[in-house]
Amino acid sequence: MPTHFERYAQVAEILARHGLGSVAAALGLGRLRLGPLPRGTGALANPDRLVLALEELGPTFIKLGQVLSTRPDILPRDYIVALSRLQDGAPPVPTAVVRSLIEQELGAPPDEVFGTFTDTPLASASIGQAHAATLHDGTAVVVKVRRPGVVSQVQEDLEILQNLAHRASRNWAAAADFNVEGVAAAFSETLRAELDYLHEGRNAERFARNFSTRTGIHIPKIYWDTTTSRVLTIERIYGLRIDDPQVAAMAAVDRDNLAALAANAAAKMIFEDGFFHADPHPGNFFVESGGRIGLIDFGMVGEVDEQLRDRLGRLLLAFSRNDAGRISRALLDLSVNGAAPDRALLTLDVAHFMEQYQGRRLGEIHLAPLINELVAILRSHHLQLSSEIAMLAKMVVMTEGMGVRLNPEFNLGEVLKPFATRLALERLSPNRLPAMIKKLGLEAADLGAEFPERLERILQQLDRGVEVHLRTEEIVPLVARAERIGNRLLAGLLLAAFIRGIGDLTAADREHLRSWQDRLLAGGVGAMGVMGGYLAWTGRPGLRARRQ
Questions:
Q1: Statement: residue 34 has pLDDT above 50
Q2: Closest by CA position to 53, among listed 19, 30, 26, 89
Q3: Residues 120, 137: Cα–Cα separation, whole Å
Q4: Helix, strand or coil for residue 382?
Q5: pTM given for the model
Q6: What share of the chain is helix, strand, coil (3-state, %, to 5)?
Q7: Do 406 and 415 contact (CB within 8 A), yes or no?
Q8: Cβ pair 318, 330 in contact under 8 A
Q9: Three-state secondary-structure class, residue 223
């Protein structure tokens, strides 16, 4: 394996040979020896040159390209299209090496561990390769074996990538705007998880639990007795790729129902389970003879935690109200790079974007163009989505594309509508009010503890007459939190008043309702006290009149 310096030089040379010397320079590699542009590549566009360079750079960079193909918030469309063509193929590992590795991991040669083992691989990729086998009871399985040496190679490349991302952020304004260091860190975490087959096995079992009551989705079983971090034994799925033209000729398959089944599975992952398959390309979906969908490859997954779920609900509510201002604020909440865009201009762009969808129901809208247009607006304002949201958006786009291939009349919006409606309405549920008020009180207390100390520090510096450099990253989030707390407290109090009004008109279960109202009112009074303190701090006029 080359030394660190030799690998840096290798990266620089490969980029230069494919006509990407300016990229190498922006990454801080300009001082290294760069080779000439090879024949035959002069007419290629930059996206195609980048694909060739990444393929030559090996597994880590191929995976990076595949991840970047899901990030239209960072790269223009022509790069996204080119990177989507990246193939994760590699020459097969020699049979003797595979057999030796299995014996090291499982304690015996493959012919003893398994009933049968096929030396010729089913598929060979940059991280591992798959072999057909059977257990001693005849169960058909696939044995995935990690390539020898791939971990050390990937670890070195990830360290290099993170160093290059740091250099790029210092030398290249666009890289800083799009938080390439954060992208590199998230990618490193994802790829390291993919190197561990135990992680993939646990993901598969989690999906199996989530879909245990759904007969139309088949999640293969993991056989833990013959699984380690380097070897994975998983039930074999038989069927045709979901985009195979021969699917239409299968007797038990209705293509319209198949599209709806795949879409409902995706909606369940996102809105109900909060745990989704982040690589839903057609090669990971197989249609079995009975019409069931078999899902494979669980190395890359995404999660929707409670905070992200709340923010998605806020965005969906804003869309349902056709409110450009609310949509803009929700999008800012979903962005992670801390950019400070012109909010008025962002709201104007969102308003123009929404005009074409005004008066149309979710079920009437194709989501892929909507998402792509919205992401283009974010990119124009140098806003970057979190990796989870980016994966989520890509999943939705790919799922809709898969559905349209099966049924040209398919509309993913119609499938997602009831799920999205439930998520949006969750934010208005009375059951959430006590927890929301408690959370707001904690945030307000935290803010009250932080702000005076920071303000005192600033005033002391001013009194000394020294030159003060106020750090935006320290002050802006603090003020934003104060504004957010005030807005959410006011919304919570208004909602509490609305629900109390409903309660006054309700005759059923009066005692229980009265008890609940008393608790809510007590929480509202406490929240009003916090609100009063917040308004006093901001010095807003009319405080006394409002409190009366």
A1: no
A2: 19
A3: 22
A4: coil
A5: 0.71
A6: 65, 10, 30
A7: no
A8: yes
A9: coil
Tell me the pLDDT band of 119, cut-offs 50, 70 and 90: very high
Distance CA 24, CA 168 (A): 10
Report CA-CA distances (Å) from 360 to 236, 312, 421.
Answer: 44, 20, 15
* Torsion over CA: 68, 69, 75, 78 (sign): positive
Gap between the Cα atoms of 29 and 11, Å rounded: 9
Catalytic residues: 279
Q: Which residues are CB-contacts of 259 (< 8 A; sequence separation ≥ 6)? A: 402, 403, 404, 406, 407, 410
The amino acid at 377 = I
The whole-angstrom separation of Cα 532 and Cα 475 is 22
Query: For 111-131, b where at least 16 C-beta lie within 10 A, e where not — what string?
Result: eebbeebeeebeebbbbbbbb
Q: Which one, of 327, 297, 302, lies nearest residue 389 by Cα?
A: 302
How far apart are alpha carbons 529 and 514 in whole angstroms? 23
Q: Can you list the pairs that 313-316 forms with residues at least 24 positions away whose Cβ atoms lie under 8 Å?
A: 313/423, 313/424, 313/426, 313/427, 314/427, 316/420, 316/423, 316/424
Q: How far is CA 344 from CA 9, 271, 381, in A?
A: 46, 31, 12
Contact 78, 85 (CB under 8 A): no
Residue with the bigger pLDDT between 332 and 95: it is 95
- Distance (Å, whole) CA 517 – CA 501: 10
